[in-house]
Amino acid sequence: MSGKPAQKRSSGDEVAVDDRSVAARLFAILDAFAAPAGATSLTLTLTAIAQRANLPLSTTHRLVAEWVSWGGLSKHENGQYSLGMKLWELGVQTPTARNLRTIALPYLEDLYETTREHVHLAILDGRDALYLEKLSGHHAVRLISRVGARLPLHSTGVGLVLLAYAPSDVVQQYLATNLQRFLPRTVTEPEAVRKRLAEIRLLGLARMSEEMTAGSSSIAAPIRDRTGQVVAAVSIVTRTTDTIDPEQERAVRVAAQGVSRALGYRRAQQ
Amino acid sequence: MSGKPAQKRSSGDEVAVDDRSVAARLFAILDAFAAPAGATSLTLTLTAIAQRANLPLSTTHRLVAEWVSWGGLSKHENGQYSLGMKLWELGVQTPTARNLRTIALPYLEDLYETTREHVHLAILDGRDALYLEKLSGHHAVRLISRVGARLPLHSTGVGLVLLAYAPSDVVQQYLATNLQRFLPRTVTEPEAVRKRLAEIRLLGLARMSEEMTAGSSSIAAPIRDRTGQVVAAVSIVTRTTDTIDPEQERAVRVAAQGVSRALGYRRAQQ
DNA sequence: ACCTACGCTTCCATTCAGTGGAAGTTCTCG
DNA sequence: CGAGAACTTCCACTGAATGGAAGCGTAGGT
Fold first, then answer.
1. Which residues pair with A236 in a beta bridge?
2. Is A212 found in the same domain as A79?
3. DSSP characters for B61-88?
4. Does A221 share its domain with A241?
5. A31, A87, A101: which to substitute to probe chain B, counting the most B Cβ within 10 Å?
6. What range defines the domain where residue A100 resides?
7. Per-residue pLDDT tens listing for chain A (270 residues)
8. Does any domain span residue A4?
């Protein structure tokens, strides 16, 4: 993790003990399967797992067997391992994911039906927008987003909305780091971003264009819970056009309001 | 697990050692959160976890802390714990869940749009139908199914389809056990079930009525992968009516075929 | 305000489960 | 058929995990 004491350098003949707990080693094994970017789900051999988790082969062998017997990993005929169904089963039980998704899905479907565009549902998690749901239809502009993906806050519609309503220290911290530029039009100047956030708060809507994926634009709106707090964001991602389509904006607003109402938000002014 | 040597009986003053490995104990903690039936996602106190996992409090405390630091559990202000986002993130990466879902979703959306009924996608997992996806709309007859749920094979549309195309030893084993009767019309006689399975194979479609939930019926069809194997099933669940709606059946067939084709199935006769 | 009860957290001596190097096995490919 | 790679099993050693006990914090009762 820290990267400093993990090497087997140092003075003399130190052999660099690994002070991770059993639990940490078990987790390291699962983490070895975390898909790097927009990659397809991983499938690894025992040796590959050992390397990625930085564990001796025999230890890996034993711990992987524990995961398999529980169902967290599964072993395929060819000797490759992949994440197991048990993880999926438990994962979908996670309260935030499950409750939000269940409540929001009907409204996302409506939004998809009326617009026929990619529909996204995301929450703020750490420094990223975490995509809880994505509806796409057959056509589909190729996008990097997918369910479970983490994308930057400053270059996505949902991300900007989430940032706009985030506590100021989160904004502070986020803007303090170097914002990656994906396309020429990506806004990366902290002050310019702040200005946008203010506009978004004023409008209750974010518009993005050509900032993450070439040829695509997005419209996003905040979802509030009963306390009025913004807990998620919906968006549609469209092919970029010259004109703003007010119907699309309305549809996104309607979806966001629908979900908010279903969450118990009553448009308190507070 | 086995239930025999876990007690603290035996002769003399044995104190019954717990021979679970660290890994097994960690897993027992997660399993404590597995939602029992159609219950809402769990949230537990440390003590409750310790009881459910059958672990001493101090051990539970330490291991729970490990889960929390990794993100597999999260601790709320009130001191309650719940499954953490990390589990969700890894869970959605699980190959079967992710690939099948991603490919199938557009077709499920079509099916929902044309029928406006509950749409289900399920796979066979052990002795259960495991629900991978569920679309519902706002109206919604109350159903027990939900994403991640496990329901019996003999009393659900998707279940019967999956069983109809399962290897014969699976069918054998399944029918060898007592099949639960949920409603008067639930078919539980092994021979009657076998007869149904044959009909389903002949028709390529299953019809169920009033066998799991009062007032609801279902139509289900098999999804095949490129090898021709049935890997999943789609269904719609409707309010029970007197007449069969051929349009609905056609819609389910179309959806199932669409997904099969997208999976690479080419209608080989084999 | 005080007390009791309950649930959580920390501590630490004991011990046994986990460790990992090495040897054995299986599979693959030239 | 032989070399190499990947996986599996073995087992003596040891330090990490264990869990009882004591300490802390808070809620509720009187």
1. A119, A219
2. no
3. HHHHHHHHHHTSEEE-TTS-EEE-HHHH
4. yes
5. A87
6. 95-262
7. 333 333 333 333 444 567 789 999 999 999 999 866 556 668 899 999 999 999 999 999 999 999 999 999 999 888 899 999 999 999 999 998 888 999 999 999 999 999 999 999 999 999 999 999 999 988 766 788 889 999 999 999 999 999 999 999 999 999 999 999 999 999 999 999 999 999 999 999 999 999 999 999 999 999 999 999 999 999 999 999 888 899 999 999 999 999 999 999 997 544
8. no
